[in-house]
Automatic annotation (TrEMBL):
The keyword Transcription regulation applies. This is LysR family transcriptional regulator. Pfam families: HTH_1, LysR_substrate. Residues 4-61 form the HTH lysR-type domain. The keyword Transcription regulation applies. The lineage of its organism: Bacteria, Pseudomonadati, Pseudomonadota, Betaproteobacteria, Burkholderiales.
């Protein structure tokens, strides 16, 4: 079999797995037109249609289903063989693409960059940090790092940082003008920063005391998709904000921000690394996970 046939078959299986040319392109780091061309070329060579396409969906034909069933074990063996070649290398190699929340970038990724790159000189890192929920498979990332409650259930998750405490804070000027909230219900009469996920839904502040757990849809004239903007708004006296305590401590200690509702801010979940369950770990990914993994005896 010619090498280009093999690459076209890999593209075919990616489209079949995702049911989408766009998602397959993201996984393979190709353009959608390149993916479409590869599938069309394969169909022309085989003389059969492999997908039924509409403007809204992509579905396998009977011929496509048969081909996929026969291909999956074979291509899995090829992937394993290529990965095993790394056993003959002095060290892992390749590019590792990581998508993390901004908190995870500060706490986990940043401190590891120098040590990781020095330990594995044949690996390159491609890191994107952004708040909100991200489909790492669709976006072509190898690894995600986020708080536990935001990790998709179908992913393999590995603890990387212990429970964090989110706190409500405001500037002294804001609290002097608007008063200090004593109960979560009081937030209804305050200006609060509303955090918006990429898909448009608004994050509800997660507060609690004892056995009571609340998800508060706070009011506010400012909605942001970047937690750094929320912090800036609090410092400027625009609104109350709700962020991880470790990010706020320098401003609290300097008197620029004041904690409120402290007894309603219990520890939250910790940070998790996660990656697709069905994807075989590359040597670059395995090396990073092993280095970043949280020791059981050191939860923080």
């Amino acid at each position: 079999m010619q090498l280009d046939n093999l690459s076209h078959l890999a593209v075919f299986t990616a489209v079949a797995r995702h049911g989408s040319f766009r998602k397959a392109a993201a996984e393979l780091a190709l353009s959608a037109s390149a993916v479409s061309y590869a599938v069309r070329t394969l169909e022309d060579r085989l003389g059969v249609g492999l997908f039924n396409r509409t403007t809204r969906s992509v579905a396998l034909t009977e011929a496509g289903k048969h081909l996929l069933e026969r291909l999956q074990p074979a291509l899995g063996g090829v992937s394993l063989a290529l990965e095993e070649m790394n056993l003959f290398r002095a060290s892992p190699a390749g590019t590792l693409r990581i998508n993390s929340s901004r908190d995870a970038a500060v706490m986990v990724v940043g401190p590891l960059i120098q040590r990781y790159l020095e330990a594995y000189p044949d690996i390159s890192l491609d890191i994107v940090s952004e708040d909100g929920l991200v489909d790492i498979v669709e976006r072509g990332f190898d690894l995600g790092i986020r708080y536990e409650e935001h990790v998709p259930e179908d992913m393999i998750a590995v603890p990387v940082w212990g429970p964090q405490r989110f706190v409500v804070v405001g500037s002294p000027a804001y609290l002097k003008q608007h008063g200090v909230p004593r109960h979560p219900d009081d937030l209804a009469r305050h200006h609060c920063v509303r955090y918006r996920f990429p898909r448009g839904n608004i994050y509800k502040w997660e507060l609690g005391k004892g056995d009571i757990r609340l998800e508060v849809d706070v009011p506010g004239r400012l909605s942001v998709g970047d937690s750094q903007l929320g912090l800036r708004a609090a410092l400027d006296g625009v609104a109350l904000t709700f962020l991880p305590e470790f990010r706020l401590l320098p401003y609290i200690e300097a008197g620029q921000l004041v904690r409120v509702l402290e007894d309603w801010c219990p520890p939250s979940t910790g940070l998790m690394m996660y990656y697709p369950r069905q994807r075989r770990m590359s040597s670059a990914l395995r090396a990073f996970v092993d280095m970043a993994r949280m020791p059981a005896e050191n939860p923080n």
